[in-house]
Design goal:
The complex is a heterotrimer of chains A (661), B (317) and C (321). Chain A has 661 residues and is of the alpha/beta class. Helix content of chain A is 39%, strand content 18%. Chain A folds into three domains: 236 residues, 3-Layer(aba) Sandwich (Rossmann fold), CATH 3.40.50; 164 residues, no CATH class; 235 residues, Rossmann fold (3-Layer(aba) Sandwich), CATH 3.40.50.300. Chain A has a six-stranded mixed sheet with strand order 6-7-8-3-9-10, sandwiched between helices. A six-stranded mixed sheet of chain A has the order 16-19-20-13-21-22, with helices on both faces. A four-stranded antiparallel sheet of chain A has the order 2-1-4-5, with helices on one face. In chain A, α5 runs parallel beside α6. The two termini of chain A are 27 Å apart. Chain B has a domain of 207 residues. Chain B has a two-stranded antiparallel ribbon. In chain B, α3 packs across α10, α6 crosses α10 and α11 crosses α12. The two termini of chain B are 13 Å apart. In chain B, 59% of the residues are buried. Chain C is mainly α and 321 residues long. Chain C contains 13 helices and four strands. In chain C, β2 and β3 form a beta hairpin. In chain C, α3 runs parallel beside α5 and α3 packs across α10. Classes of the chains: A alpha/beta (661), B mainly alpha (317), C mainly alpha (321). The interface between A and B is medium-sized, with 23 and 26 residues.
C-alpha cells in the first residue's frame, strides 16, 4: 500500500529529553510520512506525551534532531509549530467552551465585512459548511459546550485541519466518543490521509489502532521499543511490547530480575523474618527460615509485621538457594494444574504446607489439593495463591491462616468464604464505566488490570464516592454507602490512595506530620482540640515503621521524595484503620527501594485482614501482589483471573481479546 | 425550546426581562413613574455608572476584575476640573491620559507577574485614591470647571436627555461592535473562557489582558470627566464604592464573573435595573434610599445563585 | 567572565527564593521594628503611653476583622461583607440596648453570624465565588443596617460606654478583647481539628475531599466566624464612639483587613494562616499611617505607600510558590 520510502514530513531523529531526575526520552526516532496514519503507543511514563510535546513545540529536545519537511526545525512555542502546519488535537478538547461553535472554529480567521468588522452571517455560513464535512450538523451559533463531546472533538479537528495543517497529532481523540462518532472520526482521518496529511494517532484502544493506522511506534520507558507496520504485528505481540513483557523472554527475564534483589530476613522475631522475606513483593525472599512455619508468626500484630519490614530491609543473596526452585518453575508454562503440581514438587520448604512457600507455588498446591471443592474455593483457592511462573504471589491473609492452623489447606478456603468487605455493583458512568462489579474480601488483594484509560482509576474513585455515577451501588460490609460521599466511605472504612499524588494526595504546604494526621484528626483529640501527644505518637509510629525519610516531622511534605510522599499518604490512611484500601498506582514514580517497601507493606496489610484493591500498570507488580485480577477494557470488566491464571500472559491475552463488537 | 436553551436565554436576557417587568409594574403602580421626566432622570443618573460598567464588562469577560474604577472615576473628575482651566482639550485628555496610564500599569502587572487582578486593582484603588487626595490638597480643594465648553459637555441636553446619555449610548454601541465583531473582542472571550486554549489557538493573551485594563481605566476616567462637567466641579467624595456597583451591574446583566461569557446589552440592562429599583423605591416615598441597597444586594445574590443553577442545567444537557 | 556571571546567577537563583521566603515570614516584623525605631528616634512624644493607647485603640477593629479574614483567605476565599456586618451590628446593638447591653451584644453578634452563614452557604453549598457572594452581602447588609437605623444614634447605656472606654491596668478593655481574640484564633488555627482542616482545605481542596474532610461544613463555619468577629468589632467600635453610625461604620475595613492579612504573609492562594503576622500587618499599616501623619505627610501618602506595600507583599508570597 503506502510506501515507506517517501520522504518523511516530520521526523524525530534520536531525540532525547531530560527532566530533573528523569530521562523522559532516550534517543527516540520516529518518522511521520505524508498520507500515513502513524500509531504511537506506550504505557504511562513511556514518553508519548513528551514526544508529542517535542513535536508540537511545547518542549525543546535536549538531544537529537527534529526535522520538518526535510529540514532541521525548532519550534519555540506551540503557536510556531501550528503556524508551520503541525496541529494538535488534545484529549481534553482545547477550545473555549462558552464561545459559539463558529467563533471557536474560526477564531483569528473570521470573515470580515465592511470596515473590517466580522461578518457574522458569513462566519456562520462558513462554519456550517466546514462542519458539515465532519458530520456535525449542529447550530453553529450555540455555545460549543452545548455540543456533545464528540462533536466538540470534531470542531477541534476541523479547526486544526483548516489551518493548513500538514501534520495532525491526535492525543486520544476517541476517549469520550460514542461509537458512531468514532466512525465519523475515522472517516475524517482517512480523508486526511488521502489528502496527503501525516497523522500521528495516540490511543490505547487496540481495535481503533488496527482500524485506522498504517504504522506503529511503541515507546517504553522513554525508549523506542518497536517501530514498523501495524498489520505485521498481532495484538498480543503489540501489548507485550507496550507492557515490556516480551512473551518469549518473560520467564527468564522475570526470574533474573527476581533473583537480583532480595531480602535478608535478619534475626528478628521469626515472624519478622517470615514477613520480611515474603513481604517485599519483588524479591520473594526465599531464605530457608522463611519457609519455616512459625506458629506465633501467623498471629503477628501490625507492629510486629511492620517491624519485619524494617528487619527485612537489607538485601542479601540468600535467595540463591531458592533460585533453583524458580528455575524449575520457570521451565513449566506455569499454567493450570501443571504449575501447581510443579510447585508442590519443587518447593523446598514445601513439606511444611503451612509455611509460606515463597519460592513457590507449594502453597497453592496444598490448597488445591486440600480444598478442591468449595464454592469458588477450589479454583479460587489456587487462585489466591496463584503463583504464576514468576513465583508465587501468595496472599498474606491466607498465609496467616495457614500458619495459624499449621495445616494450611483448610484455612485456605476461609478467605474465599469470607464475606466481601467491599461489594461494588454495576458501577456505571457514561463513556467511563459500564456495569463494573468488584468484590474485595478481607485479606485479599484484588488487582485491576487493563491498559491506560480502561477505567481502573475511575472504578476506584467510584467505589469511594469520588466519581459521580449514573448507576450502581457500593456496599461495605453489607451496608450501602451513600452516593457521592467520600467522607462516608472513609467512615465505613474504605479509603483511596489516589493516582495523582500531587493534585489529589498531598497538601504541599503542610508538614509531614499534618499530612499524616489529616484524615485521622477527629480521632486524635478531644472535643475538637487536637492532642499533639497523640498525633506525635501516631506520626512517630508511622514514620518509623514506614521508614519515612524526612528531616523532621515538621518538614513540608512537598520537600520529600516521591516515595516518601507516597508513604506519608499510606500512613495517612493506615492511621484511620481502614477495612479496605484502594491503591491506585501506589509505586508509580518512586524509587526502587521505596517501591519494594510499599509492595511489602501491601502484603502485610492484606495479611492483617485488610481488603486491598491494587491498580498498577506494572504487570509484574500486579501479578505478584494480587490474588485475583479483574481485567478492564473500555470501562467494563472483560475477565477475571484467579489462581494460576494470574500471569502476565493471561492478563495480556485478556486485554487483547477482540471485543465482541 | 429545550431546557438548555431556556436557561441560556434566561442567563443572557434575564436582566432585560426583569427590567421590563419592573417598568410595567412601576407604571401601573405609580402615576409619576412612567413619565418622561422620571425616565430621563433614571437614564441620566445611570449613564456614568453605565460607562464604567462597560469597561468592567470587558475586564470581567476576560476573567479579571477591576476594583480601581471608583477611585479612577473620582481622579478623572478632579483632573478634568483642574485641566479645564487650560481649555476643553486638556480637560478631556488629562483624565484620559492619567487613568489610561493607571490601567496600563495594572494590566502590565497582572499580565506579566501573574498576580491576582483582585489584589493588583485593590492596590490600584488605594494608590489612585491617594493620588487624587494628593492633587486635591487632601480632598479639601474642589476644582471648579473653568471652561464653559467643557461644562456644556456635561450639562447640555437634546430632546430632554443630557449629552452624557448620548455619549454612553454611543460607547455602548461601539463596545458591542468591539466585543462581537472584532478580533479583539473574540480574544477577550477566548482568554476569559479558557486561557490555555486561547494561547494554543494563537490569541495574544498578555496583550489582550493589558488592553482590557487600559480600556477600563480610560472609561472610568471619561465617566469621571463627564461627571465633573455635569457638576461643574471635581468633587472628591463621590465615587466611593462605585466599583462595587459596576461589578454588581455587570453580574446582574448576565456576565459570568468567572469570565468568558456576557455582553454589553446585559450590562446596560443591569445598570438600568439598578436605576429603576432606586427610582421605584423613591416612588414609594416611605422607604429610604438605604432600602435600595438591600434590594440590590438581595437581587445580586439571587442572580448569582440563579447563574450557578443555570450553568449547572446547561452542563447537564 | 562568563563563568563568573553564571556563578553569580546560580547564587542569585539559590538566594532569591530564600530571600523571598524570609521576607514573607519575617518581613512584617522587621518592618514594624524599623518603623518603631524610626519613630523612637525621630518622632517627638512617640513613647508616650497615651500615644500608644490611641494607636492601639484605633487599630483594634481592623485587627479583629482581620483575624476572621485570615481564616477566610486561608481557604482561598475572601469576605467583602465585613464592613457592612460591622454596620449591622452597630444598628442591632442600639436597637436592643433597652434589654441591657449583654442581650444587645448577643443579638448583634448573632446577626453577624447569620450574615456569615448566608455568605458561607452561597460559597460552600451553591458554589458561588466568594468575591461575588460577599459583594452581594456588602451591598445588601449595609442597606439593611441603614434601614434599621437611618441616622446616627447616640446612646447613654453606661455599661456599653464603659466597654468602649474603660481600661484595665492602663490598657483599654477593647484592646484586651482584641488580644484575647487573637489568642483564641491562634489556638483554633494551631490546636483544633477545625483549624487544621481549614488550612488543609485551602492547601488542596481535592485532596481534602478525598481524605474525607467535611469541606463544605468547614467553609461555612469559616464565614460564620468571620461574620461573628466582624459583628464584635462593630459593637466595640460603637461602644467606643458612644454612638451607632451604620452609615459610615466599617466602610472600607475589608480593604484594611485584606491588607493586614496579605502584608502579614498569608498567601491569597490559601493553605497557610499566619495569625500573629496578620496582627502585625494591621499594626504595621497603623504605624505607617501614624508615622506619616506625625511627620506632616498627608493621608494621601499613606494610601499610596499602602498600595506599594500590598503589591510587594503579594509579590513576595507569589514568588514562594
Amino acid at each position: 500500500m503506502r510506501r515507506t520510502d517517501v520522504e518523511p514530513m516530520l521526523e524525530a531523529r534520536g531525540i532525547s529529553k531530560r527532566f530533573p531526575g528523569v530521562l523522559a526520552l532516550d534517543g527516540v526516532s520516529l518518522a511521520l510520512r505524508p498520507g500515513e496514519v502513524h500509531a504511537l503507543v506506550g504505557e504511562n511514563g513511556a514518553g508519548k506525551s513528551t514526544l508529542i510535546k517535542v513535536f508540537t513545540g511545547v518542549y525543546r529536545p535536549d538531544g537529537g534532531e527534529l526535522r520538518y519537511r526535510g529540514a532541521p526545525a525548532a519550534f519555540a512555542t506551540p503557536m510556531d509549530a501550528q503556524r508551520a502546519g503541525i496541529s494538535t488535537i488534545y484529549q481534553e478538547v482545547n477550545l473555549v467552551p462558552m464561545m459559539s461553535v463558529a467563533r471557536n472554529l474560526l477564531l483569528g480567521r473570521e470573515p470580515r465585512g465592511r470596515l473590517g468588522v466580522i461578518d457574522t452571517a458569513a462566519m456562520y455560513e462558513e462554519a456550517s459548511r466546514v462542519l458539515a464535512g465532519y458530520g456535525v450538523a449542529a447550530d453553529v451559533r450555540r455555545p460549543l459546550r452545548t455540543l456533545g463531546v464528540g462533536a466538540q472533538q470534531m470542531v477541534a479537528l476541523a479547526r486544526a485541519v483548516s489551518v493548513e495543517a500538514r501534520v495532525v497529532v491526535m492525543d486520544e481523540p476517541t476517549s469520550s466518543l460514542e461509537p458512531r462518532e468514532v466512525e465519523t472520526l475515522f472517516g475524517v482521518i482517512r480523508r486526511l490521509r488521502d489528502a496527503g496529511i501525516a497523522v500521528l494517532y495516540v490511543s490505547h484502544r487496540l481495535d481503533e489502532l488496527y482500524q485506522v493506522c498504517d504504522q506503529v511506534t511503541v515507546l517504553r520507558d522513554g525508549r523506542l521499543a518497536h517501530t514498523g507496520r501495524l498489520a505485521e504485528l498481532d495484538r498480543l505481540r503489540l501489548i507485550s511490547l507496550m507492557l515490556g513483557r516480551d512473551l518469549s523472554d518473560v520467564r527468564t527475564r522475570g526470574l533474573t530480575r527476581f533473583s537480583r534483589i532480595r531480602h535478608r530476613p535478619t534475626d528478628g522475631a521469626a515472624a519478622a523474618a517470615r514477613v520480611g522475606a515474603q513481604g517485599l513483593g519483588i524479591h520473594r525472599g526465599d531464605a530457608p527460615e522463611a519457609n519455616t512455619p512459625t506458629p506465633s508468626g501467623g498471629a503477628s500484630s501490625r507492629g510486629g509485621t511492620l517491624g519485619a519490614v524494617d528487619g527485612g530491609g537489607e538485601r542479601d543473596d540468600a535467595v540463591s538457594a531458592v533460585a533453583p526452585a524458580r528455575v524449575a518453575l520457570g521451565g513449566e508454562p506455569g499454567e493450570g494444574a501443571a504449575g501447581v503440581s510443579d510447585g508442590t514438587v519443587v518447593a523446598p520448604g514445601g513439606g511444611a504446607a503451612a509455611a509460606r512457600p515463597r519460592g513457590g507455588v507449594s502453597t497453592e498446591a496444598g490448597v488445591a489439593v486440600a480444598s478442591p471443592g468449595g464454592e469458588a474455593g477450589g479454583g479460587a483457592g489456587a487462585g489466591e495463591h496463584g503463583a504464576g511462573p514468576l513465583g508465587g504471589a501468595s496472599t498474606d491473609a491466607s498465609t496467616t491462616g495457614a500458619v495459624e492452623a499449621g495445616g494450611g489447606a483448610a484455612e485456605h478456603g476461609a478467605v474465599e468464604g469470607r464475606a466481601p468487605v467491599v461489594q461494588a455493583r454495576g458501577l456505571t458512568r457514561r463513556h467511563v464505566l459500564s456495569a463494573v462489579d468488584v468484590d474485595i474480601r478481607p485479606g485479599e488483594v484484588v488487582g485491576l488490570g487493563g491498559l491506560l484509560g480502561a477505567g481502573r482509576t475511575e472504578t476506584a474513585k467510584a467505589i469511594v464516592g469520588a466519581l459521580p455515577l449514573d448507576g450502581g451501588q457500593v456496599l461495605v460490609a453489607g451496608a450501602p454507602l451513600p452516593k457521592g460521599s467520600t467522607a462516608a466511605a472513609i467512615r465505613a472504612g474504605v479509603s483511596l490512595l489516589p493516582e495523582d499524588r500531587k493534585a489529589e494526595g498531598i497538601i504541599p504546604a503542610l508538614s509531614v506530620r499534618e499530612n499524616i494526621a489529616l484524615a485521622a484528626l477527629p480521632s486524635l483529640g478531644r472535643a475538637g482540640v487536637v492532642s499533639d501527644t497523640k498525633i506525635d505518637r501516631v506520626v512517630e509510629i508511622f514514620m518509623r515503621r514506614l521508614r519515612i525519610k524526612a528531616a523532621s516531622p515538621h518538614q513540608p511534605v512537598s520537600e520529600l521524595s516521591g516515595g516518601n510522599q507516597q508513604k506519608v499518604l499510606l500512613a495517612r490512611w493506615l492511621a484511620v484503620r481502614p477495612r479496605a484500601l484502594l491503591l491506585d498506582e501506589p509505586t508509580r514514580g518512586i524509587d526502587v527501594g521505596a517501591k519494594a517497601e510499599v509492595q511489602a507493606l501491601i502484603d502485610e496489610l492484606a495479611e492483617e485482614g485488610l481488603g486491598v484493591l491494587l491498580i498498577s500498570s506494572d504487570l509484574e507488580e500486579l501479578v505478584e501482589g494480587a490474588d485475583r485480577i479483574l481485567v478492564l477494557r473500555e470501562g467494563a470488566v472483560v475477565g477475571e483471573l484467579s489462581g494460576d491464571e494470574v500471569t502476565e500472559e493471561r492478563i495480556m491475552a485478556t486485554i487483547a481479546e477482540q471485543s465482541d463488537g | 425550546m429545550n431546557r438548555e436553551q431556556v436557561s441560556r436565554v434566561l442567563q443572557q436576557h434575564g436582566a432585560l426581562m426583569v427590567l421590563g417587568v419592573l417598568v410595567i409594574v412601576g407604571s401601573l403602580a405609580f402615576d409619576s413613574f412612567a413619565t418622561p421626566g422620571n425616565a430621563a432622570s433614571v437614564v441620566v443618573s445611570s449613564s456614568f455608572l453605565a460607562i464604567i460598567a462597560i469597561g468592567m464588562t470587558f475586564v470581567i469577560i476576560s476573567g479579571g476584575i477591576d476594583l480601581s474604577v471608583g477611585s479612577l472615576f473620582v481622579l478623572g473628575g478632579v483632573l478634568a476640573a483642574y485641566g479645564s482651566q487650560y481649555g476643553l482639550a486638556v480637560a478631556l485628555l488629562l483624565p484620559l491620559a492619567v487613568c489610561g496610564a493607571v490601567g496600563l500599569l495594572q494590566g502590565l502587572v497582572i499580565a506579566r507577574t501573574g498576580m491576582a487582578p483582585f489584589i493588583v486593582t485593590l492596590a490600584g484603588l488605594l494608590g489612585v485614591r491617594g493620588l487624587m487626595l494628593a492633587i486635591s490638597d487632601e480632598g479639601a480643594t474642589t476644582y471648579l470647571v473653568k471652561d464653559p465648553a467643557f461644562a456644556v459637555l456635561g450639562q447640555g441636553a437634546v430632546f430632554g436627555l443630557s449629552y452624557p446619555v448620548y455619549v454612553t449610548a454611543a460607547l455602548a454601541v461601539a463596545a458591542m461592535v468591539l466585543l462581537q465583531r472584532t478580533g479583539f473582542g473574540q480574544n477577550v472571550y477566548a482568554v476569559g473562557g479558557n486561557e490555555q486554549a486561547a494561547a494554543l489557538m494563537g490569541v495574544p493573551v498578555a496583550r489582550t489582558k493589558v488592553y482590557v485594563y487600559v480600556m477600563s481605566g480610560l472609561l472610568a476616567g471619561l465617566a469621571g470627566a463627564l461627571n465633573a462637567a455635569r457638576l461643574s466641579s471635581g468633587v472628591t467624595i463621590l465615587g466611593i464604592g462605585l466599583e462595587l456597583d459596576a461589578i454588581a451591574a455587570v453580574v446582574i446583566g448576565g456576565t459570568l464573573l468567572t469570565g468568558g461569557a456576557g455582553g454589553i446589552t446585559g450590562t446596560v440592562a443591569g445598570v438600568l435595573l439598578l436605576g429603576v429599583i432606586q427610582s421605584l423605591i423613591n416612588q414609594v416615598g416611605s422607604l429610604t434610599s438605604a432600602f435600595q441597597q438591600v434590594v440590590s444586594g438581595v437581587f445580586l445574590a439571587l442572580v448569582v445563585v440563579a447563574q450557578r443553577l443555570l450553568s449547572k442545567a446547561q452542563r447537564l444537557t | 567572565m562568563a563563568e563568573l556571571t553564571a556563578r553569580t546567577q546560580a547564587r542569585v537563583a539559590v538566594l532569591k527564593p530564600r530571600v523571598f521566603a524570609w521576607v514573607q515570614d519575617y518581613g512584617v516584623y522587621a518592618a514594624v521594628l524599623v518603623l518603631l525605631l524610626f519613630n523612637v528616634l525621630f518622632t517627638p512624644h512617640f513613647l508616650d503611653a497615651a500615644n500608644f493607647r490611641t494607636q492601639l485603640v484605633q487599630v483594634t477593629p481592623i485587627v479583629i476583622v482581620a483575624l476572621g479574614m485570615a481564616l477566610v483567605i486561608g481557604t482561598q476565599g475572601i469576605d467583602l461583607s465585613v464592613g457592612s456586618v460591622m454596620a449591622l451590628a452597630a444598628a442591632l446593638v442600639v436597637m436592643y440596648l433597652g434589654y441591657g447591653w449583654l442581650p444587645a451584644l448577643i443579638v448583634a453578634v448573632l446577626g453577624g453570624a447569620v450574615v456569615g452563614a448566608a455568605g458561607g452557604a452561597l460559597v460552600a453549598y451553591v458554589g458561588v465565588q466568594p468575591i461575588v457572594a460577599t459583594l452581594a452581602l456588602l451591598v445588601g447588609v449595609r442597606g439593611l443596617a441603614n434601614v434599621l437605623v437611618p441616622q446616627l444614634v447616640e446612646f447613654r447605656n453606661p455599661d456599653l460606654i464603659a466597654l468602649g472606654s474603660s481600661s484595665v491596668a492602663g490598657i483599654p478593655v477593647i484592646v484586651l478583647i482584641a488580644a484575647a481574640l487573637t489568642v483564641i484564633v491562634l489556638f483554633v488555627v494551631r490546636r483544633t481539628t477545625f483549624g487544621r482542616q481549614v488550612v488543609a482545605i485551602g492547601g488542596n481542596r481535592t485532596a481534602s475531599e478525598l481524605s474525607g474532610l467535611p469541606v463544605k461544613r468547614v467553609l461555612l463555619t469559616v464565614y460564620v466566624i468571620s461574620g461573628l468577629l466582624a459583628a464584635l468589632a462593630g459593637v466595640l467600635a460603637t461602644a467606643r464612639l458612644q454612638a451607632s453610625d451604620p452609615t459610615s461604620l466599617g466602610l472600607f475595613i475589608e480593604l484594611s483587613a485584606i491588607t493586614a492579612v496579605v502584608v502579614g504573609g498569608t498567601p491569597l492562594t490559601g493553605g497557610r494562616i499566619r495569625v500573629l503576622s496578620t496582627v502585625m500587618g494591621a499594626l504595621l499599616m497603623q504605624l505607617l499611617s501614624a508615622t506619616l501623619i506625625k511627620h506632616n505627610l498627608p493621608q494621601s501618602w499613606t494610601q499610596m505607600v499602602q498600595a506599594v506595600i500590598i503589591l510587594a507583599a503579594v509579590y513576595a508570597t507569589r514568588e514562594r510558590r
